[in-house]
From TrEMBL:
Name of protein: ABC transporter ATP-binding protein
Keyword Nucleotide-binding listed: yes
Lineage of producing organism: Bacteria, Bacillati, Actinomycetota, Actinomycetes, Micrococcales
Record-annotated ABC transporter domain positions: 61-280
UniProt source species: Intrasporangium calvum
Family: Belongs to the ABC transporter superfamily.
Pfam family, one: ABC_tran
C-alpha cells in the first residue's frame, strides 16, 4: 500500500451561495490508489509575437526580420499533487487555459512533464479514438473502426457493437456519415466506444457536457459500472454542472495550480460561484473566493514504497 494522506474533508460553501440539494450519485466503495500525481509541472516554451522582446530598435527589428521570435514559458500545470482511487470519478474544472487537458494528457502518457511524476496502476484509456474515426463513414462503421483501433478482435467487435450503439443513443443517425453529426452526437459516440472497453482508468475530455438528459443518465450508469469494477474516471468539463452530476470528487485548477480538491458537489459549486463573480466583473470577490478555496486545500503526501512500486507504472520518463 503506498503511503498517502489526502484531502477527504468536506468543504464549506462560500457565503451567499444559493443552497441546493446535492444530487445523490451512484455510490461505489472507494478502494486502492490507481493514479498518483506527485509535484507535477508542465511548462511549454512557445514563440510570442509580442514585439517588446529583442528590443524595439534596429537590432530587434533586424533579428525579427531574420525570423527570430522571442520565446516565453507557459506554465500549464504547476506543482500538482493528488491521489486517485478506484471507485472515484474525478471531475477537473477550471477556466480556459487552466491546465485541465494538459493534466489529462500527462496521465494518458501523451505528454512528458517538466517536473514530477505520474504513476498509474494500469494503462489509462483516453477518449482518444478520435484519430481513428472517419468523418465520411457512418457512425456504425466508425464504431467498428474505433473498437478495432482499441485492440479488439473482429469477433469482440461484433459482440460489443449492440452495447456501444445503445449507449451512444443516436437512433437511426448511427447509419449516417459522422460528418453530419453535431458535436454532441460525435461526443456521445466517442464516449460509447471508449467506455465499452470498461478500462480500469478512463480519461474523458469534454465529451459529456453536450449530452441530453437521457444520454447523461446512460453515461452516468456506464461510468458507475466502470467504477464498480474498481475503475477510476477523470472527466474534464467546462460545465461544472456536469461534474456535479457525474463525479464523486472534483479538482479545481486555476492557472495550472490546484485550488481545491474535494467532493464534486462542493468543489464544482465553489468554482461556479467564482466563475459567476468573474463574469459579473466582481474581481475582488472572485479573488477572495479563490483565496478561501486555496486555504481549504489540504496537503497530499505521496510516497511509493519499493514493495508496492511494481504495481504502479510511470506514465512517462520524468525529465527531472
Ligand atoms: N502544446 C502546447 N504548447 C504550448 N502551450 C500549450 C500547449 N498545450 C497547452 N498549452 C498552454 O497551456 C495552458 C493550459 O492549456 P490546457 O489546454 O491544458 O488548458 P485547459 O484548462 O484544458 O483549457 P480549456 O478549458 O480552454 O480547454 C494554456 O495556456 C495553453 O495555451
Amino acid at each position: 500500500m503506498p503511503d498517502v494522506s489526502e484531502n477527504t474533508g468536506r468543504l464549506e460553501l462560500p457565503e451567499g451561495f444559493p443552497e441546493e440539494t446535492p444530487k445523490k450519485g451512484i455510490e461505489v466503495p472507494i478502494g486502492e490508489p490507481t493514479v498518483m500525481v506527485r509535484n507535477l509541472s508542465v511548462h511549454y516554451r512557445v514563440p510570442t509575437s509580442d514585439k517588446s522582446g529583442g528590443g524595439r530598435g534596429p537590432v530587434g527589428r533586424a533579428l525579427r526580420s531574420l525570423g527570430w521570435s522571442r520565446q516565453v514559458t507557459v506554465k500549464a500545470v504547476r506543482n500538482v499533487t493528488f491521489v486517485a482511487r478506484s471507485g472515484e470519478s474525478i471531475g477537473v474544472v477550471g477556466h480556459n487555459g487552466s491546465g485541465k487537458s494538459t493534466l489529462l494528457r500527462v496521465i494518458a502518457g501523451l505528454e512528458t512533464p517538466t517536473r514530477g511524476t505520474v504513476l498509474a496502476s494500469a494503462t489509462p484509456s483516453f477518449l482518444g479514438v478520435n484519430a481513428a474515426l472517419m468523418p465520411e463513414m457512418s457512425g456504425m462503421a466508425n464504431v467498428r473502426l474505433g473498437l478495432l483501433a482499441m485492440g479488439k478482435s473482429p469477433r469482440e467487435v461484433e459482440a460489443a457493437i449492440p452495447d456501444v450503439v445503445d449507449l451512444a443513443g443516436l437512433g437511426d443517425s448511427i447509419h449516417l456519415p459522422m460528418k453530419t453529426y453535431s458535436s454532441g452526437m460525435g461526443a456521445r459516440l466517442r464516449f460509447a466506444i471508449s467506455a465499452s472497453a470498461r478500462p480500469e482508468i478512463l480519461l474523458i475530455d469534454e465529451a459529456l457536457a453536450t449530452g441530453d438528459a437521457a444520454t447523461k443518465e446512460r453515461s452516468e450508469a456506464r461510468m458507475a459500472e466502470i467504477r464498480r469494477e474498481a475503475g477510476t474516471i477523470f472527466l474534464v468539463s467546462h460545465a461544472a454542472q456536469t461534474i456535479e452530476e457525474m463525479c464523486t470528487r472534483a479538482i479545481w485548477l486555476h492557472k495550472g495550480e490546484m485550488v481545491l480538491d474535494g467532493p464534486a458537489y462542493e468543489t464544482a459549486r465553489a468554482y461556479r460561484w467564482w466563475a459567476w463573480n468573474i463574469s459579473k466583473g466582481e474581481h475582488d470577490k472572485a479573488e477572495k473566493l479563490l483565496a478561501d478555496a486555496r486555504a481549504q486545500l489540504k496537503f497530499t503526501h505521496v510516497a511509493v514504497h519499493d514493495s508496492t512500486s511494481k504495481r504502479y507504472i510511470p506514465r512517462h520518463r520524468p525529465s527531472i
